[in-house]
Amino acid sequence: MPARPLPRLPPEPPPTVMEALRKRVAGPDLPAFGVVFALRLAAQQVDNAITDWMADTAGTPARFQILALLWASGVSGVPHKDIVQALQVTRATVSGLMGALERDGLVTSTVDRDDRRNLNANLTPRGRAILEQAIDANLASLRGAFATLAADEQEMLTSLLQRLRQGFIAVRDNPGSKR
Q1: Could you report the per-residue pLDDT of 80-107, keeping only the tens digit for each?
Q2: CB under 8 Å to 124, separation ≥6 — which residues?
């Protein structure tokens, strides 16, 4: 499948918007706008690239996440509710994804022996093969995407993104607080 063209978003808003922001926002606060614009653009491009990479293997990033979760668990199986929690999506979303994965023969779901209200998911041999193919096929793309960053820079970027994420969570959970 040919890669779909990535959207050509500008790295920042139009000059007129930036000028209006410079007039409205105090000096030290203005760089945060630039960070948000750059981060959103990068996130969209990363998401588009990963979606394209997954199309020929696992299908979608969400399917890959489920397959990887089951693969990492070994043979023990994973309760559907744990998949919901791991993906941070609704039960309905996981039900739809699991239904499609089951139809494709990549996973099976069985009723929990101890609590019949719960389902446990297991990876089939075909699902394991698809997941391992996805890992191998996309490793070269990941290497290429991160080629411009040394290992310590990748670690620093990860740390910064985690701190940024925590800052956004803190503001979300306490919107009246000033940072």
Answers
A1: 999 999 999 999 999 999 999 999 999 9
A2: 105, 106, 107, 108
